[in-house]
Structure formats: structure tokens, C-alpha cells
Amino acid sequence: MHHDHDPLPGNHDHGAKHLYIYSPSSAVRDKAAFRRGIARLQAQGHQVEVDVSALATHTRFAGDDATRLAAIHRAAASGADVALISRGGYGLTRILPGIRYKAVAKAIAKGTHFVGLSDFTAFQLAVLARTGASTWAGPALSADFGGAGAPDEIMQACFDDLLAGHGQGTGWRLPRPRPDAAADRPVQPAMHLKRATLWGGNLSMLTSLLGTPYFPDIAGGVLFLEDVHEHPYRIERLLTQLLHAGVLARQKAVLLGQFTDFKLTPHDKGYRLQSVVDWLRTQIKAPVLTHLPFGHVATKVLLPVGATVSLSVQERDALIYWGPRH
After folding, report:
1. CA 31 to each of CA 48, 104, 297: distance values in angstroms, whole numbers, following the listed order
2. CB neighbour list of residue 272: distance below 8 Å, 6 or more residues apart
3. Which pLDDT score is estimated for 326?
4. Number of neighbouring beta carbons within 10 Å of residue 63
5. Which residue, 167, 175, 225, 318, could crosslink 203 as a Cys pair with Cβ 3.0–4.6 Å?
6. Are strands 113-116 and 82-85 parallel, antiparallel or unpaired?
7. What pLDDT, in 10s, does the model give residues 53-100?
8. What is the pLDDT of residues 170-203, one digit of tens each?
9. Which residues are catalytic, by number?
């Protein structure tokens, strides 16, 4: 895995930034992780502003719908360099109609980077569908900055790149060819795609928006997907819905990130995640690239949802580039 800009881990040369922490989805249950994340970001020299309702609780949510909508709008009005979610979970799809999208797009135009993942995918795709504005698929406060151990070095370096304005792309290594791969299935051939819209996120959240005004109409895009706690057959079922809806056939490439925390059963009889990947490759003409370092894992890159990117593959090296020269 590599970046076009690789600061030394812990070398935060970007200067103090204004970070706004808010909770648009599930309630924060791990208060210790929340506090650790804030302390670590402050120790890096940042001004960390915590939303007044960041620790609110209403059943499973971080406050009722009106409370969480207000938090989103305060984040948009904060003038922060980064608006960072405390955690994902569930709660954004039910409040999508109440979001003031013009205010969010205005904040993005003024320089606020909205960062998050998981349930936050719903917000990101809705913003893209309604305004065309870009957000960032990346860390959440508690899980990524507030863990018991130090934040992952690659995630931290990518976050630092975003804050410094240095991040222009990210790369990773594709897996080696499998010994059991068919002889007529060569290693991914070299490719270079130019000017494609990068979009995607959590597969379950993305698919849940299909057929709504919050699902982006992207043709010729690069679609990236990840998920957690979903058995491979459920992943295949979600992909099948996107396939039958015509979404996958319209993409230039599909990137599969990390699909984690599921348990196979004796009933599967050899059916596994690779089975899904192999099946998907028979269904669409676009290349399906795996091992993208993004998902519910510690080592994750930051990806600009809605940005125009280039995608290159040379042997096992894959690179997404969104800098000025792509």
C-alpha cells in the first residue's frame, strides 16, 4: 500500500485544524473511546469542538431525529476544517428528507470536509445525489482514534494528508493469482481509466437507497464497496440487486474493500467470499478489483466520494488518483 505523499507516522506537519465532532447516527455507548479519540486529536495540536448533542441518547440513536438533524446543520455551520462523525451504526436514512443539502454543499464549498463511513454512507450518497458535492469516506472518532491502542499509522497518515491538503491519491497491492484459478483467467491486465466519478461506501447502506431520490445516478463511475457482519450470501444478494437494477453494468470498475466479521457455516460447503467475487466477475464486463484497504478495519485509506478520479493497474499495483494531474 502506498500514497503519493507519505509523512512519517506522528509527524503532524499540517498545523492546527478545527475539527467538529458530532453524532448523526447511533448513540455513543463507549464513552471512554470517545474521550480518548478527542484527547488524541487534541494532542496532535487540533482544536476539537464537540457538538452539544454528541453524547445524546434516544433509544438506540444519538438523540431523536430532530436532534440529529440539528447536529448535522451545526456541523455544516461550524466552519470547521473537518466534520468528523463519532460513530456509525444506524439512523441517517430516516432523516435524509430533513437535511438542508444546500447548506451542507455550501459548507463543503467553503472548505469543510465531511468524513465518516458505515451508516454515514447514506449521508454521503444523498449529498452527492442532491448537490454533486464531495465528502470523504474515512475514519470515525471512537473506533479509529479512540481505540485502546494507537491509531493505525496508515489511517493517520491519510487523515494528516487530508488536513494538510497533500492527499492526491492512494494505492494498494492486488492479491496474488490463486493456484486454483482457471488457466484462462489471467492476472488483471494493465488498465488506466481517466475521469471517472468515485463513489460508494457501505454495501448495505448503498443498496438501501436504490430507487430513492438519494441514490446517485452515476454512469461510467468507479464504485467501491465494503461491509461488516454480512455473510457472503447476503453480500451476493445485495450485489445481485445492484446488478438487476442496472447499476453495476454502468460502472467502469468495481472495487471491493474489506468484508469482515462474518461466520461461515457447515451448510456453505465451500461457498465463501471468494465465491461471490468469482461469480460477480462472470456477471459484468468491468474489472472487479479486490483488497482495497477500506472498511470496518483499522487500516483504511480516505477516499473522496463524488470526486473525479483516475484508476490505474499495473501488474499487482493499483492506484486511485484525484490530484490535479489525473
Report:
1. 16, 28, 20
2. 232, 264
3. 54
4. 23
5. 225
6. parallel
7. 999 999 999 999 999 999 999 999 999 999 999 999 999 999 999 999
8. 999 999 987 765 555 556 789 999 999 999 999 9
9. 118, 226, 296
Q: Phi first, then psi: what are they for 10, rounded to 5°?
A: 90, -5
Gyration radius of the chain over CA positions: 19
Residue corresponding to grid cell 488524541: 40
Residue 225: strand, helix, or coil: strand
C-alpha cell at 181: 484459478
Average confidence score pLDDT of the chain: 94
C-beta pairs of 65-74 under 8 Å, 24+ apart in sequence: 65/94, 65/95, 65/98, 66/98, 68/23, 68/24, 68/25, 68/95, 69/95, 69/98, 69/99, 71/22, 71/23, 71/24, 72/22, 72/24, 72/99, 72/104, 72/123, 73/99, 73/100, 73/103, 74/20, 74/22
The set of cell numbers assigned to 261 is 466479521
Q: CA-CA distance, 124 to 186, in Å (whole number)? A: 35
Cell numbers for 128: 452527492
Q: 136 and 127 in contact (C-beta within 8 Å)? A: no
> Rounded to an integer, what distance in angstroms lies between the CA atom of residue 29 and that of residue 35?
12
Going 183 to 187 to 191 to 195, the CA torsion angle's sign is positive
Cα separation, 123 vs 92, whole angstroms? 7
Which residues are within 8 A (CB) of 283 and not within 5 positions of it... i.e. 6 or more apart? 243, 248
Beta bridge partners of 166: none
- Mean predicted confidence (pLDDT) in 6-23: 68
- Confidence (pLDDT) at 15: 81
The whole-number pLDDT of residue 7 equals 35
Rounded to whole angstroms, how far apart are CA atoms 313 and 322? 15
Nearest to 31 by CA among 92, 82, 114, 87: 87
pLDDT band with cut points at 50, 70 and 90 for residue 142: very high
